[in-house]
Amino acid sequence: MMVGRFLLAAAMTLLVVQGTADTPPRIAIIIDDLGYHFEAGRRAIDLPGPVAYAVLPATPSGQRLARIAHERGKEVLLHLPLQSVDHSGPAEPGALMLDMSRTIFQAAFADAIAAVPYAVGVSSHRGSLLTRHPGHMGWLMEAIRRREDLFFIDSYTTHESIALQIAAETGVTAIRRDVFLDHDRATEAVVRELDRLKAMAHKRGTAVAIGHPFPETLEVLERELPKLREQGFELVSISELIAMQLNRI
Ligand SMILES: [Zn+2]
Hints:
The chain is of the alpha/beta class. It has helices spanning 2-22, 38-45, 62-71, 102-115, 134-146, 163-170, 187-204, 215-224, 238-247, and strands at 26-34, 52-55, 75-82, 119-126, 151-154, 174-176, 179-180, 206-211, 234-235. Helix 4 (102-115) crosses helix 5 (134-146) and helix 5 crosses helix 6.
């Protein structure tokens, strides 16, 4: 019985290994911070392929852009503002803050998820302070888990983020982004980061990038995304990529 089970497991492993050898490296791209500038958001939604759009909840055009993206068959994420360490500017509207009580925190989450129709997941906006705090991250993951189908993407704005660990403890499906395409928004820098993304996907099988609706980023993606297939990569939706990373298929 033990031997039989082992052989079965070995055969399944072989199938999985063969499967990965035959499948191209997969890439998923999320465009963050949609909601303030309608035209830039529209242009981003026009990018070819299953790109995802992370929409800020308390913004003038967020709902409208989420609807347009969904109608175009694209995936929508709630881009949830979380308090960052940087105190230089006002907090993002709708942000979850460290000084909120559990009740207020969860009500703020409920408002945010209600503000972004069709969201299939939640990604973090800023959050270099809040994603380090186990108590608040626990509240957040509990709120996400209650919505059953939602997953979480850690934008990973600090290496001290414990979001993935808390998500795992709470039973929430979660992954971390690998590359920021436009931390430096100069065209050459975006091209360089896109190359780094491809190298990572090649090495590991999958890779996730985040970009913003900057003209430079959109221009590079408009030009480069249609070439991915002939370069041997497959652009997949973020939920497909998560399923692949978790199941290693
Ligand atoms: Zn953001």
